[in-house]
Amino acid sequence: MTSEKKRKSNEFPGSFESKCINTIRFLAVDAVQKANSGHPGMPMEASDLAYVLWSKIMRYNPKNPQWLNRDRFVLSAGHGSMLLYALLYLTGYNLTLDEIKAFRQWNSKTPGHPEYGCTPGVETTTGPLGQGFATGVGMAMAERFLANRFNRPDFPLVDYFIFSLVSDGDIMEGISSEAASLAGHIGLGNLIYIYLDNRITIEGPTDFALSEDVGRRFDAYNWQVQHVNGYDLTGIEESIQQAKGEKSKPSLIIARTNIAYGSPNKQDSADAHGAPLGEEEVALTKRHLQWPETPAFFVPEDVLLHFRQAEKRGQERENEWLSLWEAYKKSYPELAHEWENMHKEPDPSQWENSLPLFKPEDGAVATRSASGKVLQAVAPHLPGLIGGSADLAPSNNTFLKNFGEFKNTGGRNIHFGIREHAMGAILNGMALSGALIPYGGTFLVFSDYMRPAIRLAAMMGLPVIYVFTHDSIGLGEDGPTHQPIEQLSSLRAVPNLMVIRPADAQETVEAWKIALSRRDGPTALILTRQKLPIIDRDRYAKASELRRGAYILADAPESKPELILIGTGSEVPLLLSAYEQLLDQGIQVRVVNVPCWELFEMQSHEYHEKVLPSYVNARLAVEAGCPYGWERYTGTQGKIIGIERFGASAPGEELFQQFGFTVEHVIKDAKELLSSV
Q: What is the CA angle 508-513-516, rounded to 5?
């Protein structure tokens, strides 16, 4: 260590705490300046608040970031990521000073916005404003559920808090309003948010676009609201302790802060919102706050030792919890066993035998109805399965009978209300508990409301399950506003999102098997409102072939097709009818069911060639939605029957006729295609 780095605290004016705070502040400033990219203003304004939280309030163990009863910290204002990285480095997480210096660089652990799974100690990916706010609500709901399920007198196994720093942008985004409303309605006393009221956004003062009284709004949401000076350490600590003492309401602490605090020329200016201070202003700021101008990334030894006490403190707290856990196991062995199982990967052998069986003689069944029966069957065997719908449970078939309401009893049925935006992010927060299997239902067309949260779930690899029903024009008279056209193709475009559109009730069972077993990303089940015939699996391929993503459902004699019909979901029975007639006419035809593109793309080249042999150019894909993307399977000489306009209001059967989803149309197009290639 250089002689400059060995400087003692007493060489600098001000209190020792101010040295600690400025260490956080200038690590962020220097990292942003070195990267010549980033947001220095927010870390500069929030370092005092963060210092109080991380040194005096929060329970965490830097040596075990996944300690189950740790407090969670969500930097919803993810543009200020260097604040979090500085804290993680200083308190002893596996993040080096070199990583701080590599801020925003290729392969570093310090990306521009916090990324779950990339940086130890980052609890969730944030950046799109409002997502962290709503995800934190999901984390608090997970804590509430687990506490209700497992805590016993003298055994507070689960009692962690969720803390978050939120910005003006978070406050303005609609998803935050939805999540705040639900959190207040439920009464999540374990949720403590600090609002950085700096009154500056990228375009300038917040009063360009915001004039409401935020405190009164949150008071109306049934939150406890406090006001504090963002640089009064005693006041900050007292307000947080008061928030911890409020058990029946979430808390919002409105902290009056100054963006780019300490910068002579950029404090309280939009200039510090998303751009480095500049070398000259960095030097001026360090002089103003009496911090050494060189070297950059300066960390006084005694300050680092002070922060690193978090390692010992965290291990002691975890050891206390582990002692409690050992005693808990002796007193409540059955609950302890359940706790351990919920934190492991689900064992299919525990629930697969309970799955419903569907036979052709049972008659036609809507896949949404089959999905509901699967949920009822597996729920008793999966205590971590929890979810609900955005006020559509009777339509989505997502209500778990006999498992209670979340709000009043700690049950497993969540009434999200008409809040699809928030539901998506709340599911993410619940999945991040590592113990729960959250699911959420709505109509497929409303998946658009959830898209940012779906994208983040895929990015984080979270095992969230989406139950999207009313999957096509088949929903009928509600008309084009409710009939999904482009949603399927747009969801398939999301990396790491598994989209499954089963063709009948049996395939719906297989789809749920995959969704419940998947641990590395979300799964979207695309289900029908209308009834579909149950495919005779004694005559055609087994439904279990769905696990390959695509499979030969019906084949030409000797498996030598000259024509391949390709489809998904409700269009598959249509293709089977066309297949039978084409065979009778002497045409060698194959039907390929492609319920899940993502699973099919995971298969080998040899399997792809087996299912879709390259020598067959006559390929006709049929799906009641946007045809975009099907070219990858039809090839340049193939054809697609899809929908390239919005739907219409009429009975579903008539709409399928009007849009060309008939046996006659399929046969006509198939013959024309065959004659042209």
A: 120
